[in-house]
Amino acid sequence: MLKFYFNGSPNPTKVALFLEEAGIAYQPVAVDTRKGDQFKPEYLAINPNAKVPAIDDDGVTVFDSNAILLYLAEKTGKFLPANTPQNRAQTLSWLMFVATGVGPYSGQAVHFKHFAPKDQNHDYAHNRYQFEAQRHYAILNDHLAGRKYMVGDTYTIVDMALWGWARMAAFVMGDDAAAKYPNVKRLVDEISARPAAAKAIALKDNFKFKAEMDDEARSNMFRHMSVKAA
C-alpha cells in the first residue's frame, strides 16, 4: 500500500486531495515538523530535503508535492486534461508555476508575516515576499478570467496544486485577498466544496501534531535561526 508522509500544511494537503479524489488506498504517516520528525534518518532516506510531503509507492519514493501529483496522475491516468500537445505543455507550465512561484513565495510571505522574530526589522523581506505572492496571484486571477479551470475544460492536478496554497490566501496576504483575486477564489471555493477536499483537510485531525510554536518548534522549522544563535 502507498505510504503518504504528511502533515496539515498546504503542500501535503493537495496530495491528500488527489489521493481522496482518485480513491487510492494509502497509509498516512504523520511527520511532525514541529518536533523534528523530518530530520530522522528514516525519513531523510525518503526525502533528503527534509520536507513534507513524500510518498513510498511500493518502493518507489517521490518527494515534492507537485512531482507527486504528476507521478500519481500519470500512473493512474486520472485528473489530466485531454492528451494534446498544447494541454501537455500548459499542464507542465502551470504546474511548475505553482511549484516554483506560488508555493515558495506564499511560504516566505507567511514566514515573514507571521513567524519571523518580532525584535528584528524584516520590513524589506516582508514587503518583497508580499509583493511576489500578490504578483503571482494576480497572474493566476487573470488566467482564470473566462476559464473554469487552469488547463483545458476539466478539473486537473494543476487545480489541485493551486488549491493547496490558494485556500490559505487570507493567511498569506491578508483578509482582502478574496476580494482582490475573485477568479482564484471562485475556483478554490468550488474545489473546497468537494467531499474529497473535506477529507483531505480533516486528515490531520486523526493524528496528534504539536500545536505550540515554541522554541522547539522554531528550532526544527526554522533551522537558520538556531544556526545563527549558535
Automatic annotation (TrEMBL):
The keyword Hydrolase does not apply. The keyword Lipoprotein does not apply. Pfam families: GST_C_3, GST_N. It comes from the Bacteria. GO terms for molecular function: transferase activity. Residues 1-80 form the GST N-terminal domain. Residues 84-213 form the GST C-terminal domain. CDD domains: GST_N_Ure2p_like (cd03048). Keywords: Transferase. Belongs to the GST superfamily. PANTHER family: DISULFIDE-BOND OXIDOREDUCTASE YFCG, GLUTATHIONE S-TRANSFERASE-RELATED. This is Glutathione S-transferase. It comes from Bradyrhizobium retamae.
